[in-house]
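Researcher: Please predict.
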Amino acid sequence: MYKGGHYYSLKINRSTANGQYLVDEEGAEVLLPRRYVSPESQEGDTLRVFVYYDSEDRPVATTETPLAAADEAAFLEVTDKTVHGVFLNWGLPKDLFLPARNQSYRMDCGKKYVVYLYTDNVTGRTVATARLNGFIRNEELTVAPGDETDILVAQENRLGYRVIVNNRHWGMLYHNQIFAPVAVGDRYKAYVQRITEDNRIDLTLQQPGYDGVRESAEKLLALLRSGNGTLEAGDDSTPERVHELTGMSKKTFKRSVGFLLKKGLIEAAGERIALKSASPDTDKTSSDA
């Protein structure tokens, strides 16, 4: 039986008036409706499709990409509400069902919520839940300090933002580590800053090490070029002023300025930095010093 909410690589087995029937290695067929059939596709071709259950609870394939798949967290909008639960827009013709038993708070039409998608073991359908702790856990971690991760911002509290890391773990982005607007539902690349003894994951949006400095230095160069070669921020500027003009922390800004100074790309004085107009390497921040 095909599991709803998953991607499959399937071969085209036969064509009918309704569409093409795709088959897996065990001979199980699933329909790809005609509206998704490409004129160039032929029997024997392999297609990557997403399988979900239609309004008659039959597995059906699509070449469309949903907003989320099974075993993923997502920020989805409620489109309808009944006594049995709510329906969410996940980018497919049939909305995603979130049963009433899976709600941990009131959910209203037109609003978005962070949910987790999973496959129901009995029906094979994909369903959603707002009870995230049943799927997002930190008992056994799959990340380490320095790792790049994908995060979904789930909740805001007085310390910062609680985020879902790689669809598997809870992590934290602290207010004093954030230098750009962040909101619930946003997705980012983030880096594991530390893991505590009780398996809390602290993250940062700033890439650590040399690559992080190079990335912020390139951003600084772009700001200089768009500002006629000068920027009214420097070593003597306040952290607030630096953040206002660059979106960086003072620490990241100073490291980036040092990087560019070392390469001879800029000059700095007080509360001002500027491009060296005669520099031949203003586009080569990644070259060796």
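Model: The radius of gyration is 25 Å.
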